[in-house]
Amino acid sequence: MGIYLSTPKTEKASEDGENDKLRFGLSSMQGWRSSMEDAHAAHPYLDETTSFFGVFDGHGGKGVSKFCAKYLHRQVLKHEAYEVGDLGTSLQKSFLRMDEMMRGQRGWRELAVLGDSIEKLSGILESFIWSPKGGEANDHVDGWAFEEGPHSNFSGPNCGSTACVAVIRGNKLVVANAGDSRCVLSRKGQARNLSKDHKPNLVAEKDRILKAGGFIHVGRVNGSLNLARAIGDMEFKQNKFLPVEKQIVTADPDITSIELCDDDEFLVLACDGIWDCMSSQQLVDFIHRQLKTENKLSAVCEKVFDSCLAPAVGGEGCDNMTMILIQFKDPSNPSAPVTNQPQSSTESSEADMSEEKAE
């Protein structure tokens, strides 16, 4: 069956949580794929006033997606721009920082632990050959000091991951995206895309790819990768004469910042295993229908998976699926979520947030 199983794995890993401003549910399912390469992060209390949510869709292995889920929010939190309230800059720099951190001995070792079983074995064997001096490995984790070792010249992983992250502080929502995972807001029942799917044939992406010396074949970068932006994938980031944002594939995210209002009901972050099967508006409509009878948000995510899962191998509905559903609470009644009735919607109502501020 190649990269697919003979029967899908439909067991779901789900979680629910909340703070005084929102509640969330999330779930992930391996499905027909032979391995689970998605990862996610949900931190309703990144600090006292800020929430962080992210989905990461790995390709070529799960090491990079899990690395991002483990470290990206920490980098955002510690960045000097975050300390002065510049959420967009802290997100943008932290996306790029992931590529830096995955290089060298320490990056290699962390990816070996987080990655697939053969990588784990390699990491265990390597530890008999070399390990950092006692206490050095875990001190100041986010400082990420350089470590000497047999993989000191490791240029970074050739597997990669998308990253779509939402940070909420008060009424401010900042979304950072690299790749084709997607963030969608439901405002009065209308789907509003807060991210752009970075496919190679988009004019701006194609222009960068070609100028950096790459090519596009059958919709794929150098005939291989069907994404134009991703964290990792270091084989596409080797031009020493270009800055990181102008490489064939870049981790540089688009940043979108909006002010939330009383008409905003919920936010969805999901990997493309969902978007392959549903448009943004179709998913928003599906969620609204489910919320009429289902209060547990993770259960709504699970029902989305069941609806999307292909009945047989091949085509749409065969990918890993990961989704976070964030519902905003009514400020006048924090114990109850916003319950605006959606307007009648059509596919044409699905719109990018072009009228909102892009940082």
From TrEMBL:
Domain of life here?
Eukaryota
Checking CDD domains in the record gives: PP2Cc
The family database entries (PROSITE patterns) matched by this protein are listed as: PPM_1 (PS01032), PPM_2 (PS51746)
What does this protein need as cofactor? Answer: Mn(2+); Mg(2+)
The record's Gene3D superfamilies line, in alphabetical order, gives: PPM-type phosphatase domain
Annotated Polar residues bias: 330-348
> Which GO molecular function terms does the record list?
metal ion binding; protein serine/threonine phosphatase activity
EC no. given is: 3.1.3.16
* Residue stretches making up the PPM-type phosphatase domain: 23-328
Cross-referenced InterPro entries, in alphabetical order? PP2C, PP2C_BS, PPM-type-like_dom_sf, PPM-type_phosphatase-like_dom
Task: Write down the Pfam families for this protein, in alphabetical order.
Answer: PP2C (PF00481)
Enzyme class per UniProt: hydrolase
Alphabetized UniProt keyword annotations: Hydrolase, Magnesium, Manganese, Metal-binding, Protein phosphatase
Q: Where is this region: Disordered?
A: 330-359
Q: Which family does it belong to?
A: Belongs to the PP2C family.
Annotated protein name in UniProt = protein-serine/threonine phosphatase
Q: Which organism is it from?
A: Lupinus luteus (European yellow lupine)
